[in-house]
Design a protein that fits this description.
Five copies of one chain form a homopentamer. With 91 residues, chain A is mainly beta. The first copy, chain A, is built from one helix and five strands; from the N terminus they run E-E-E-E-H-E. Chain A has a single domain, classed as OB fold (Dihydrolipoamide Acetyltransferase, E2P), CATH 2.40.50.220. Chain A has a five-stranded mixed beta barrel with strand order 1-2-3-5-4. The two termini of chain A are 23 Å apart. Chains in contact: A-B, A-C, B-D, C-E, D-E. Chains D and E meet through strand 1, strand 3 and helix 1 of D and strand 4, helix 1 and strand 5 of E. Strand 1 of chain D pairs antiparallel with strand 5 of chain E.
């Protein structure tokens, strides 16, 4: 899993029926302090995340398909959680 | 998924029957503003994309095989959509 | 497998029941001398690792699912061992 | 898929019977102009490629196993075509 | 596959029974001239490789599991051969 923040939406003419009615969100990757790394990915939402939300993303196809519950979903990245807090030891 | 723009075609003597009659497109990767990153990939088309089209590409083998509908397709990257617009929050 | 050291916890509102009651640990990647590389990952624990422990992490979805014993677990990274020692030849 | 040029052979004492009688080729990765990037990979041949041939390589395990027609082949990279031409738009 | 040289062993308290009695070797990645790149990986041995041996490593989970002959082995990297020679064309 990686951490990120939702920064926007992407709209596309997509042919595969899997994508009908699904939101494609742009997620800026962040470090553990929430600072953006400059990299991003495009993910399907599973937790009603909105712009500005800090999120956890599973970035692996088979794991993403398990969460969707559809073994044939053509996806790789899915938002699986909204981050409540990060607790890093100073040691 | 990643974003890119179709920049050309690649022609090859390919032995696997999966590739018969399929177009291999060169996709220059782009950032969310459509600026090319200097990296590229070779993808199979599924949406009749042409040179100059901004596209969404699934770059994971199992996801690509689901879109093709052929669990034995020897591919990794497939163009799944033509991008209509990208909406990024300023926050 | 990669080496790392547990540096903290991450708390998230997660919807998939797989995560109920599971700890998500932050693992700072290290080189073989235990020096942090600046990169990190978020892993599920399988060996009761705690903050400060040097650990081995399997960072591949199918391997991680085998360790959990759940072929549908939506995970990619799992802590599989606590490192006792590293023995590198000077040659 | 990625593009490359065959630059040599690698000989190894390999235990898995899959490799008996199979050639392991060194492929220097190239950009679309055929310029070597400095990176390389080791691939199994499926098209009788020889040193100096520009080639297309599938660099994903499941796709490579489909081409070999052996779902248990322990490979990741396979040469699937010899490149005839690359046609890149100037736009 | 990638090339490397065995540089040491790693010892760990591992819970998954797959690892019982298996050696975990540290492999320094090398270029085709045997020069170390500064990167490394941790691999399971399948060819009785020792410290200093130049080796071929399959670095993909499904391929590694095929060599072990155990579809549920939680591994990603496995040493599949000891390199006899590398023959690179000067062209």
């Amino acid at each position: 899993m990686i951490t990120g923040v939702v920064s926007g939406n992407i709209f596309s003419t997509i042919n595969h029926p899997f994508y009908d009615g699904k939101r494609l969100l742009i997620v800026d990757k962040t470090d553990l302090n929430g600072k953006r790394t400059g990299d991003y990915l495009i993910a399907v939402d599973s937790v009603d995340a909105g712009v500005g939300d800090p999120v956890l993303v599973v970035d692996e196809g088979n794991g993403a398909r398990q969460i969707i519950g559809d073994p044939s979903a053509p996806i790789r990245s899915i938002i699986v959680g909204i981050i409540d807090s990060v607790d890093v030891s100073p040691f």
